[in-house]
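As a warm-up, study this chain.
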Amino acid sequence: MLQKTYDWMMDKAAHRHAVWWLAAISFIESSVFPIPPDIMLIPLVLAAPTRWWRLALICTVSSVFGGFLGYAIGYFFMDSVGAAILTAFHLTDKFAAFKPLVDQYGVWVIIVKGATPIPYKLITIAAGAFHFDLAHFTFASVIARGMRFFLVAALLWKFGAPIRVFVETRLKLVTTAAVVLLVSGFAVLKLF
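Now compare it with the structure written out below.
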């Protein structure tokens, strides 16, 4: 089933309304869709490298707005819809482990987890279920998703097709390195 969904997304990346498909997939991936929008973002940036910034922005904004849907699912419908989504994606154990992290690290855990390739729907639904402050959730989501999608798009713009395999196979490593740099930068700023 995932292969068919992946093939369908690749087909939409070549569609004349691909940017709209990118926005739609970025939106629904934040709450219910199994495949990250990077699958569409990568070929779109490679096809139009000068539009990398615009494509990353569309991906980011759509993902954050989709995150509000995930947040609402967790906030209002956790026992029915939220639980079903988490069960369908085998995220129930991760959901339970996420609560102490949110309690202890707040915005930081949403930024770190939201920038990595772990399912963003886990974060959005959990933030709603835990009644995490919506303003802080929004701030963290903009940073996390923006960092992720702009990093991918910028790498593709700068290095082109040769970096595609690296990004596709090592996305977790790339985003984790970006998060470490971001957190380190804030730590250094706190010292001074």
